[in-house]
Amino acid sequence: MTVAISPQGMPTASAHDSLSLVQDIDWAAVAPPLALAVAALVVLLADLFLAGPRKVWLAWISLGGLAAALVLLLPLNDGDTRATFCAPANPTTTPGCSYVVDDFTLVLQLVLIASAAVVVLLSMPMTAPRPWADERDVDSGVPGGEYHFLLLASATGAVTLVAARDLLTLVVALETLSLPAFALVGLRRDGRGGEAALKYFLMSVAATAVLLFGISLLYGATGTVYLDRVAAALTALDPRLETVAATGAALTLAGFAFKVAAVPFHFWVPDTYRGAPVPVAAYLSVVSKTAGFGGLLLVAGIALRPYAHVWGPALAVLAALTMTVGNLVAVRVATGSGDAVRLLAWSSIAQSGYVLVPFGTAAGEGADLSERLSASVAYLAVYAVMNLGAFAVVTAVGRDRPTGLLSDYRGLLRARPAPALAMAFFLLCLAGLPPGLMGLFAKVTVFQAVVAGGTGWLAVVMAVNVVIGLYYYLVWTALLFAPPVPGAPPAAEGTPEGPGTLGAAGALRVPMPFALAIAVAFVLGVVLSVAPQIVLQVLTVPGLLG
């Protein structure tokens, strides 16, 4: 059977459909993940021929592949939906497609690819012996070829995942995202990386087993793996199969809940982030989590839409637990050990709770489900900017103050004004306070979604958690402006002016890639604070999730 691709990329049936299974492939639609996969192979081969300072080219090749993927997104932004790898229609179903590029796909692919590019910038001093790295890089010596290959391979899975429209492709893309990430976590040399990678691996394997079991039950009950066909089958399901389908839906959602670090599936996050190199922690916090939420949005918003009245209340409870646990433990970390990366890990868990809030409105009355879920898409885009910015500053400060404690940031404004002001801005964005208005707009958008959905108790829980979160963000911000401890040397004292550094005493003294990553995140943060409609306009996209 032949499924032809129309000029707009949608599947169309032909007269001889019943005679052949041959179909065309829309290469333009699959070009972005294909570019990342090719770049990963090029990096792996180039590593064999580059040595010493020339290994810095591995990072530039990675950036080139990511830039090419971004460019290849432009032809797809023509307002039309493109689909490929489609199954033929039959008298009772429409053609089901495994890979679809629509507005939802483009928004998340843009966020994922751009975020991965920032992570590559943060990784340069860690993977290139010269000119960026020196004795202050606690994670230096990480093999550049393997690192960038694994990063690009994982990013390929993330970009593919948000375009997947059948359950099998979702699982394959999810594993392509996850398996290289295990190795990335374990690349750290000090011993903590191996422990963190093992914990991440074991818990991820268990979550994948649960996910696969859930998908098998859904397939057994509906007879299809395509998301839109699953939804259609669930609306006319044999009553004898309802328990099987409901169990499959619950297990499938639980598998994705692990990827987004929703409570009680969050235990791997703090230790994994703390044991991994900081750029890898940033990658897990933004790229891996955004892709996980993309999969959750697709499964819940398309395949399991007929069961929204069931999973809506369940995810509302998960959202409330995730916000509350994340914020309360973050407060404890801020007043206890004061570990900066661990604090960002718990903050990331709390932020996942905010993203989950629109899911909890599925059981309420009001606006259409896809309109409310699009608030989660907008929040993910804003979250990527402010969280990557915070991790970028933490990575830069860690070069001179490798203990990674909040006390390291005391008086940072006097020693390094530029990164201190940038960090203050990112923390205020995460808190939702001016001048970090993009964080405030994102929270208001989610709050409006929950109010429109008629889930009043969840709105109250979110409001209380936003107030709780103010504490640890403001504590960290206050340390930046506090006077240094008497007798302590300034952070920049004795720092050599080597290649890739900027300015004189008191100025920004970080490698150029770090400076560029911080600057990109800061500029995007300012732009989104002044013109939030750039991101929030995704809320007006008709049929964002079908």
Account of the protein in words:
The chain has one domain. It has 19 helices and four strands. Helix 12 (340-356) packs antiparallel against helix 13. The protein is mainly alpha-helical and 546 residues long. It is globular. Pfam families: Proton_antipo_M. One of its GO terms (cellular component) is endomembrane system. It is an enzyme of class 7 (translocase).
Q: Strand portion, in percent? A: under 5%
Class by alpha and beta content: mainly alpha
Q: For the largest beta sheet, what order do the strands appear in spatially?
A: 1-2
Beta-strand segment tally: 4
The radius of gyration over CA amounts to 23 Å
Which ranges are low-confidence, i.e. pLDDT below 50, for 5 or more consecutive residues? 1-20, 489-508
Number of domains: 1
Helix content: 55-70%
Please report the distance between the alpha carbons of the first and last residues: 26 Å
Described by strand count, sense and barrel closure, the largest sheet is: 2 strands, antiparallel
Number of helices: 19
Order of helices and strands: EEHHEEHHHHHHHHHHHHHHHHH
Report the principal-axis shape.
globular
Mean pLDDT, as a whole number?
83
Structural key phrases:
NADH-quinone oxidoreductase subunit N; globular; transmembrane; cell membrane; membrane; 19 helices; two-stranded antiparallel ribbon; 4 strands; mainly alpha; 546 residues; quinone
